[in-house]
Amino acid sequence: MSTTWHILGAGSLGTLWATRLARAGVPVRLILRDQARLASYASGEGLTLVEQGIARTYRVTGETPDSPEPIHRLLVACKAYDAPGAVAQLQHRLGPDAELILLQNGLGSQDAVAAQLPQARCIFASSTEGAFRDGDWRVVFAGHGYTWLGDAARPTAPLWLEDLQAAAIPHEWSTDILTRLWRKLALNCAINPLTVLYQCRNGGLQAHQCEVATLCAELTELLEWCGQPAAALDLHGEVQRVIQATAANYSSMYQDVANARRTEISYLLGYACQAAARHRRVLPHLQQVQARLVELLVARRLPRD
Ligand code: NAD
Ligand code: KPL
């Protein structure tokens, strides 16, 4: 019997992983916020995955953070701003052999979690899969993609990748996961804030090409200062390709703001601007975009961080 996967966060990605692992017969348990959420979950049939219009429900056992069983493998599927606090609640259940897989976008939250748990192995992930919830305990698999996993401290791949293989979760072990995360952060910083400021789909940025190019030039410099030259290679070219390929889509940050949800700005633009400050450098356009975005968030009564 393989080790149980505890999944922290029954949102879009948490449900997407939990249902596919359960479908493959891998043992999974879902950690819900509190007794009220557990009661709501227990009153239903389980977790539903909608794939190509077909809905299938899987019975995955739910529990709360104060459940007594030890946790050996934890998939952290919360938003970046919730991850450190959510993991802290489970600290007493994580043994010295614990492994955490951190699915958060951006940078900053992974180091915060790893600093809380110096003995545990923290594996960072970067995913291009897309999913959204269309109801409580239901997720729609909206975009097929890939998940890269890696551990900057220990490059050996874990044996449990075979669980992901069995669950048909497309993945690859990456020996340069930080480069991947930085590259994704730079792409998100060049696209997402502008889609919020101009209230447009990704393709709408074709009308703001100069601004996109200026941001890409600053982000390229930042990646180089931060020792990430590989993440900087042809950043502008890739940003243009992503804008074209996803022209009809709304960025994740646009969707957060449109749905009055907190954004992950602190782990994207905020992290980039802080990294520049650590290197005593100024990135005027990136900082200006951050200031404009914060102003917009405050005007909409959304958290500024
Ligand atoms: P989500 O908001 O759908 O899900 C997060 C879940 O975590 C929510 O259900 C929330 O209630 C739960 N949660 C928060 N704190 C908790 C706690 N203390 N205990 C238990 N549960 C808790 O978010 P998501 O879209 O799944 O995104 C998760 C991360 O993955 C984000 O960093 C996001 O940027 C990244 N990501 C998402 C997608 C996607 O398509 N959804 C794609 C790539 C990357
Ligand atoms: O990842 C994205 C997002 O919307 O968060 C893309 C499509 C790359 C835009 O930055």
What does this structure look like?
By secondary structure, the chain is of the alpha/beta class. It has 2 domains: about 5-175, NAD(P)-binding Rossmann-like Domain (Rossmann fold, 3-Layer(aba) Sandwich), CATH 3.40.50.720; about 180-300, Orthogonal Bundle (N-(1-d-carboxylethyl)-l-norvaline Dehydrogenase, domain 2). About 40% of the residues lie in helices and about 20% in strands. It is built from 12 helices and 12 strands. It has an 8-stranded mixed sheet, sandwiched between helices. Strand 9 (about 130-135) and strand 10 (about 140-145) form a beta hairpin. The longest helix has 21 residues, at about 175-195. It is globular. The mean pLDDT is about 95. Pathway: Cofactor biosynthesis; (R)-pantothenate biosynthesis; (R)-pantoate from 3-methyl-2-oxobutanoate: step 2/2. Belongs to the ketopantoate reductase family. Catalyzes the NADPH-dependent reduction of ketopantoate into pantoic acid.
